[in-house]
From TrEMBL:
Gene Ontology molecular function, alphabetical: NAD-dependent protein lysine deacetylase activity
Organism: Microbacterium plantarum
Gene name per UniProt: cobB
Record's protein name: NAD-dependent protein deacylase
Residues forming the catalytic site: H106
Localization, UniProt: Cytoplasm
Length: 225
């Protein structure tokens, strides 16, 4: 179990050049959420959804981890076994910064899921055009990401880890999406010290012991120092 559990969202990757979802210039400005991030949207127009994720896979591959990702990886290196990152992000910038324990609860761009055989597999190319599944041959590969209405990955283990941690930090997420947004309540209820490091404050900050506002590349290195 980890003493420190860190929940991260799109804001931690923003300064690596990866767009967030709900900002004025965010991803949802260009796309209706229900068209690209629901099973129904995918069934209606798979080509649109593949184009959306193929472009994001290329953008993530071209991005580099920033000082916030690196500070968290350095913390884990200083305190082996004490840090668990629970990320809503589908990029791999935490891993590329050197973090070892990362749980991608909303899936990963670097993975594909075969809807025919159920296999999850590393995938680094485009999915547009319907490449065959290397396992079963069906042309049924989709992005291995969690859309609205689908179950997030690893939730039971994460609830257990959060209920047992000493510190729970939330970095760069709007807190608009459950179940990730409800983890702070679990941590607070269990007696962990809670912190929010975000560009903007939440309307309701009652569950946070500490609130540090600012860009993650400035706040996170200072916070973990
Ligand atoms: C900075 C910064 C800087 C910027 N430094 N900070 C009614 C119908 C159906 C479902 C529901 C419903 N009501 C509720 C639900 C549940 C639903 C939900 O939460 N909906 C709400 C929107 C209302 N949740 C789900 O459906 C989840 N599943 C579920 O509940 O399953 C139940 C179930 C159980 C058992 C069996 C079956 C089902 C699944 C949610 C999946 C979310 N998926 C997405 C897409 C993933 C793939 C992809 O990336 O495309 O996840 S949506 C999108 O939002 C993505 C993100 O991970 C997630 C959160 O976004 P995030 O990271 O918070 O980004 P932003 O943009 O919102 O915020 C960025 C923040 O950073 C801002 O605050 C900035 O200020 C800050 N910031 N720059 C520091 N430099």
């Amino acid at each position: 179990m980890a003493r420190i559990v860190v929940l991260t969202g799109a804001g931690i990757s923003a300064e690596s050049g990866i767009r967030t979802f709900r900002a004025a210039d965010g991803l949802w400005e260009d796309h209706r959420i229900e068209d690209v991030a629901t099973p129904e949207g995918y069934a209606a127009d798979p080509a649109l959804v593949h184009a959306f994720y193929d472009e994001r896979r290329r953008a993530a591959a071209a991005a580099e981890p920033n000082a916030a990702h690196i500070a968290l990886a350095d913390l884990e290196a200083r305190r082996p076994g004490d840090v668990l990152i629970v990320t809503q992000n589908i990029d791999d910038l935490h891993e590329r910064a050197g973090s070892m324990r990362v749980s991608h609860i909303h899936g990963e761009l670097g993975s594909a899921l075969c809807e025919a055989c159920g296999e999850r597999m590393p995938w680094h190319g485009d999915l547009a055009g319907g490449p065959p599944c290397p396992v079963c041959g069906a042309r049924a590969l989709r992005p291995d990401v969690v859309w609205f209405g689908e179950a997030v990955y690893g939730l039971d283990d994460i609830f257990d880890a959060v209920a047992l941690c000493e510190q729970f930090w939330v970095i760069g997420t709007s807190g608009a999406v459950t179940p990730a947004a409800s983890l702070v309540a679990v941590a607070a209820e269990a007696g962990a010290r809670t912190a929010l490091l975000n560009l903007e404050a939440y309307e309701d900050l009652r569950l946070f012991d500490d609130v540090v506002l600012g860009p993650a590349t400035a706040t996170v290195p200072e916070w973990v120092a």
